[in-house]
Amino acid sequence: MRAAAEPSQGGITVVARKVSSVEQRKKDKEFRKLQQEIQQDRQQFSQKIEKLQKDLNDAQASLNEESMAKLTLQMELDSRMGRMNSSGDEIRFEGWLSVPNQRNARRLGYWKKQYVIVSSKKILFYDSETDKANSTPNLVLDMSKLFHVRSVIKTDVPRADDKDIPLIFQLLYAGEGEARKPDDIPTHHTNVQDSTSIFYKHHDLSPITFHMPTTCEACNKPLWHILRPPPAYECKRCKTKLHKEHIDNGESAVAPCKVNVDNAVARALLMLAPSIDEQAKWITRLSKKIKQTGFAATSTNKTSPSYDVRASVRQPYNKYSSAASLRSSTLPAHNSDPSLIKRTGV
Fold it and tell me: Which parts of the sequence belong to the PH domain (predicted)?
């Protein structure tokens, strides 16, 4: 009985193996088919992504072109409107100035000459008389976004030539009030936050020492020494420079920060006048304009921008006494608050 059963069991085993092989081949075939379908789906999906990406790039390019065209037209309009507002010296004045062209002040050609027109609502910068005639400025600043103009000292622009210091002045303005030609790249620098900073009367004060002539803005005493400079603070926003002891003692002589802004970026533009007298005239006229139509005078401006610039309201070197008397009156004696910042120039 056992011998008769053995062939039967062997036959069942062979049949089972044949069935398993058939099923395996069938599954392999289905698997390959699924793989092909997945591969086709991937290819189709990749093609769709490429098409959508191309459409997006084309749309962005068109948007950029339209934005640049709109900006160019707006700048031309501002130029023409500015030229129309010429009913008197108090409303409009103009002349040749120079602005920074490169980051390194020691490079040849650092200053780039510009023809500047100040109208009732705009400050227009032209590369040449031809651009002026064609109403194509490369930079337009909104008068309502300006909030200060000041002369500089050596510590404000350490890389500038000493002979240029009494000729340089600085214009501070809100970033949203700037319009530049698309191909004109500004040299702004973003401020870096410092963990050692302290806050006092809205100042963002950072520890610093000075080895060049510098004066404390609270007591008007020297704030520098070649070998052993006294401990000092400098505000990152308004660049006020103070003895450390004034802050430690909480003295009332320290005025609040003069720069105040929320969610805005302020910028500073250095400008070089052809002579000390011209620098004095530009500072005086711009100060008057800013008082009349600048940031503080505009009711819609609730705040004023902060900036990251080497800017000081103190007097320059004594040997430049004619320039030293030009302390700007566009900033209040006791006023202000904070934010972010950028820098143009030296």
Answer: 90-291
**Residues of the chain below pLDDT 70:** 1-19, 64, 67-68, 70-72, 74-76, 78-91, 102-109, 182-196, 258-265, 298-346
Which residues, listed in sequence order, are joined to residue 224 by a DSSP beta bridge? 210
Backbone angles phi, psi at 260, to 5 degrees: -140, 120
125 near 115, Cβ under 8 Å? yes
CA nearest to 316, candidates 114, 175, 102, 157: 157
Question: 19 phi and psi, to 5 degrees?
Answer: -65, -45
7: enclosing H helix or E strand? helix 2-84
The per-residue DSSP string of 32-61 comes to HHHHHHHHHHHHHHHHHHHHHHHHHHHHHH
CA distances from 225 to 90, 212, 228, 264 (A): 43, 7, 5, 36
pTM (2 decimals)? 0.53
Q: How far is residue 296's CA from residue 192's CA, in Å, rounded to a whole number?
A: 27
Give the pLDDT score at 279.
94
Which residue type occupies 312? S
Mean of pLDDT over the chain? 73
pLDDT on residue 344: 45
- Distance of alpha carbon 71 from alpha carbon 54, whole angstroms: 25
Identify the pLDDT of residue 10.
57
- List the structure tokens of 33: 């088919």
